[in-house]
Amino acid sequence: MPDFPGLSVFPPKGVIGTSEPAGCQIAQTLAIYGQTFAAAAWPAANRALFYAVQIDTPITIKEAIIKVGTQSGNVDIGIYDWNGNRIVSKGTTAVGAAGNQTFDLTASVTGTASPTLEQGTYFMAMACDNTTATFLNSNVFANQGVNACHGVVQAATSFVLPSSVTYAATSSLYIPYMLFTGATL
Amino acid sequence: MADCPAPPANALPTHIGSLGIYGIGAAIHSILNIGPGGAAQTWTVANAANYSPVVIPWPYPVARVWWQLGTSIAGNSDFGIYTTGGAKIFSTGSTALSGSSQALQYVSVSTPFILSPGFYWFAYVHSATTASRVGGQSLTSTANAQLLGLMGQTSALPLPASATFATAQNSVMAWCGITRTASGF
């Protein structure tokens, strides 16, 4: 009998993100339950949150995008490997005005610019230095246990995103909208 | 000619759960318009197990199993994996609940094993009908449990070596499942 095809029931699209079911565990459950995103405050100052994504087909990352609700303080976004080592991060960036905020990951980054993610599990990371800023978010799960069984972890005192982290069990329900793409948005 | 080969273990989801995409998650939302669950629930019939269908699309290495706790941490639970024919592959045995409210409780597998691609039952049972012991999803009725394909068995703590499938007695299903991770989350 032939092997089951591929990795995901959702075919890869050349993007990864917290609302993209192809590879992102939490996005898969959000999709099947039909959940939506709305602006909410970052849960804890200087906390970094990490969301597991499985890469089946190599993807090169050039840009990221989030959506700001309330502008305040600074934000950082990046990608980490399974062991908590940073692959790339943008560095401290002022939270933009309400609306889309993009991050150029081809230059002026810490780590590897335009990294190519090979087959494996990675973590999409976001950190913010205050709890006034709001971002497009889904905290639809009732508690942190459901986040944990979808590959969500966190690290305290991790703004700016550090070169390496020790992942800890998440105490957060927060799922910010993040999209990483190989295109220029 | 074989289909695409299975991905390596490091590109597999960190967790596979009863109420997620590989379990009954999509059906719960489609049919009942509820979910995604994780709130503290009351196991409606003490010592009666629910068997919930799950698909494993690729060889999956099992290092630990888990269930989500409710807000009342007491009593005993048992989690098991069964073949479609009802043969038990693994179970934790009757295990005292412990840990933080609504977090995941993990039980390590003494000898990690690989589940072959295919269909399985995830079984869960709790010892009492005390409120808020179980993290999961109310299915609102045993008729709905039946509609979602769940089976049941009374007097099933600890879980039996061979399942005797009968009508589901519990109108709740716990978030429970397997993980390839030996630690973390």
What does this structure look like?
The complex is a heterodimer of chains A (185) and B (185). Chain A has 185 residues and is mainly β. Chain A is built from 2 helices and 16 strands. In chain A, 7% of the residues lie in helices and 38% in strands. The N terminus of chain A is likely disordered. Helices cover 8% and strands 41% of the residues of chain B. Chain B is built from 2 helices and 14 strands; from the N terminus they run βαβββββββββαββββ. In chain B, the strands form 3 sheets. In chain B, strands 3, 5, 6, 7, 9, 11 and 12 form a 7-stranded antiparallel β-sheet that branches. In chain B, strands 1-14-4-8 form a 4-stranded antiparallel β-sheet, with no helix packed on it. A 3-stranded antiparallel β-sheet of chain B has the order 2-10-13, with no helix packed on it. The mean pLDDT of chain B is 93. Classes of the chains: A mainly beta (185), B mainly beta (185). The interface between A and B is large, with 39 and 43 residues.
